[in-house]
Amino acid sequence: MNPLRLVGTALCCVAIVFGGLTFPSDAQLDPNFYGKTCPQLQSIVSQILSKVANKDARMPASLIRLHFHDCFVQGCDASVLLNKTGTIVTEQEAGPNINSLRAAVSSVLTGGPGWLVPLGRRDSLTANQDLANTNLPGPSSTLPELKSAFANQGLTTLDLVSLSGAHSFGRSRCFLFSDRLFNFNSTGKPDPTLDPAYLKVLQKQCPQNGPGDTRVNFDPTTPDILDKNYYNNLQVKKGLLQSDQELFSTPGADTIGIVNNFANNQNAFFQNFANSMIRMGNIGVLTGKKGEIRTQCNFVNKKKKSPELDITGVTSTESIEGGVVSSI
Ligand code: HEM
């Protein structure tokens, strides 16, 4: 089974197991939410994700990014998973997501920290492509723009610097930063905050007018490991995106001290990364009777037979084969 099918199957199994349960309307997230109903949850998810990561080393990075893109658009409600239908304008076709999302996640599997994920969240009945286009910061965002995108979600500058550390693994396509290599801010010159040797390497990987969709490692030192090297790279002007390097190279910025702290202390980075992932993961969650538990991750449930059980008699005319977000 390919990695996406595995993840899709896992998500759908979880949905089916839990979909029939009802919860009080004032329910809160709780790391032990499934303690009685599915004590093996943690090990099931770990096993599936580790299989997935073995097949494709980039998949954990893709999953963490998927969570970010979900949370910044009407909260962490799996709205990003909803495919296009007659009534759903899918977020997957918003600018920051198109040809760019993959289903999958794990920090622990890639050397990063673990944390107790508050559970009990439910799935949205809607998606919002417009919000996906406006809420997500872009690769050329300046520091004030990044701060304001995070503040709009109730997140702090510390969250911004901590979560940007996710760019210590995964890849970016050339066209998203090639302006920095050849014609930064229409100056006809490269971005002066790029290290000259690193600039040459990147120019070779992403030649001018070359294929924009070539993928380049965010971290040239440990490309598939979640570690503090992202911050060490910023200190030596080796941030890949402008939005990365802004955290260290914006004169007088309050983010510089945080970058230096994380660059010197991996534990400090891990602790803050875990805290900020929890804070981000709590944005706009649906609990209790809000939303629903989808039987198929990428489609809203079709029918409700009973007001109590929100997944009974659910059918989708779409194929389960397409049960996860598009992948490239
Ligand atoms: C601070 C603002 C951010 C900007 C401007 C940004 C932008 C980007 C861009 C342009 C890419 C490359 C996408 C592509 O090639 O299709 C990317 C990849 C990635 N982003 Fe971000 N991002 C930000 C914050 C975050 C956050 C908060 C997380 C998670 C906590 C995250 C996790 C990732 C990961 C892991 C990848 C690599 C995905 C892969 O290889 O499949 N990013 N990001």
UniProtKB/TrEMBL annotation:
**Binding-site residues, Ca(2+) 1:** 70, 73, 75, 77, 79, 91
What this protein needs as a cofactor is: Ca(2+); heme b
Q: Name one GO biological process term.
A: hydrogen peroxide catabolic process
Identify the residues that bind Ca(2+) 2: 219, 222, 227
Query: One MF term in GO for this entry?
Result: lactoperoxidase activity
Residues annotated as the enzyme's active site: 69 (proton acceptor)
**Sites marked Transition state stabilizer:** 65
Its name, as the record gives it, is Peroxidase
